[in-house]
Predict the 3D structure of the following.
Amino acid sequence: MQMTARERVRLALEHREADRVAIHDSPWGTTVARWHTEGLPEGVSPHEFFHYEFAGFGPDISLRLPTEKVEETDTYVVQRGANGAVHRNWKGKTSTPELVDFTIKTRRDWDAHKGKLVYDERRLNWENAKKAHDNARAKGLFLTFGGGIGYDHNSASLLGPVRLLTAIVEEPDWVAEIFMMQADLAVQIVEEQFARGIAFDAAFYYDDLGYKNGLFFSPRAYREVLQPAHRRYLEPFKRRGLPCILHSCGNVTELVPDLLDSGWTCLQPLEVKAGMDLLALKRKYGDVLAFMGGIDVRKMAAADKEPKALEEEIRTKVGAAKKGGGYIYHSDHSVPDNVSFATYQRVIQLVHKHGTYGRGR
């Protein structure tokens, strides 16, 4: 009998071999638009076409400030979000938004607004959450609770990276308060969902902690300021014996021992261009940490000219990382729009070829 996606992912996260490695990915919106012109059927998502194996959703942990469109031109749109941050985004292109301005600039600003960070029913669309849960169960998908948290959430949407990094050094107790209040709110929401029968399979949180050359701040700062909040976020899942997946861009190799100590059980997406080495991490931590990702999208983009390099990338990495379980396929971040539909079809074919375990499993 063929395994369900839920069973396949669960086995991988338990460091056990399934029938093949589980498959998930994150194509850009502009990538999907391109693929629809190259053979992906209209009205069909990559998730459906390639049989991705995760489903998930998360709550609103913002200050719920008024949102507005500040400016719009033919090429970009400027918007104010629910935490008061103003972002400029391109139209028709996928990129990191430009951070224009922030409402919360000082501790006094935070103190004036933090009372809004309270739980009520409007923090989640309960009808949609129940439908998403039931749909995941009907399709046999692995269901995760998540969203942006910690440093990543606040550097982009609350304080901005410069102000936040400065505060981590100069006002660590304030930053720790921000992180913990948001963690407490998220825990309230997820506990209420469990109580109402929405049974998640894992936590899947997003907190970018590194960049190309290393960490945004030291491991000591992580332990003192952010780690208590990470542990708090994970409490409902650890108590239920569920896996906890961390998405962190950049090079976070130095932080792996502390991430393990926090309770994370899987690391994603293992950004190759930032220096993350899937096979080295597997050798060193493969008995205690699962991995998701690590397949270089630059090899996908160059596949028309160097098809053998793409197969070597997948053969060597998937072939080694899958041993003993503990590995899930994903690109090393997301799939950009310089990757053709034909190439990506080849990627998934190769993952099936090199990610299948022995017969009879």
In short: The mean pLDDT is 96.
